[in-house]
Amino acid sequence: MSRSRILSLFVLIAALGFVAGCGDDDDDSGAEADATTAPVTAEDCQPDALETEKPGRLTVATDSPAFPPYFEDDDPSNGRGFESAVAYAIADELGYAEADVDWVVEPFNSSYAPGPKGFDFDLNQISITPKRAQQVDFSSPYYTANQAVVALKGSDAASASSLADLADAQIGVQIGTTSLEAVEASIEPSSEPRVFDTSNDVVTSLKQEQVDAVVVDVPTAFFLTAVQVPEATIVGQFSAPGGDEWGALLEKDSPLTDCVSLAIDSLRESGELAEIEQEWISEKANAPVLQ
Fold it and tell me: What is the pTM of this model?
């Protein structure tokens, strides 16, 4: 065997040894990559283990003014109103007393902007969307906004106590919305709903009695009856496809996100979340569930 061939064979053996060594390293790193992070537990989510804005305290944000039925008397700290009650329930699940909760103001439109936050989480009827989730974290949803039927007080539609009672009503709805899908899927009216191009057109149709009732999402119904058409009332609410989910908003990659989600999941499983919704939205806000 010539010297050149011996040298080539030596190089080949060395190369094979190098490849084998790389293979071993890859196997080890693959095993590490396959390892999953253990889910958080209640023990991981107690005040002494949480990295909050202020040590030992929980800072919750919402907008100002804070409107019913989410907050009462424009005072988030009083525990009255749907989102105020939810905030304190989350705090309790995390081991914080009411006295350990601080409230701060965060305008709605700036809450989901990227960057550091001056709060631990924000409750402000903030819809969970993929675009927002690129810039902030969201917890598990604490509420799914239903659809609502709104009619003028004293009208036949206003006295409806079930979806079947609305089957013969002329219903107005905005085109291209989940509300239109909800009317068709859940109410199944005997006549085609009247479709309008804008939300303002829907409001006008109700004011001018062009329709018997309109269907909008529940948050819009609260605003419509409180501000736009005070002579109207919420007949009731109903669940429908395309519900709008709200979550607690946190800073992107917040170390608290999993714990807040765990707290909300626990409240949902225990039935406490449903009780809060029943008290502050179904009863206090006069939005009974229509079946």
Answer: 0.76
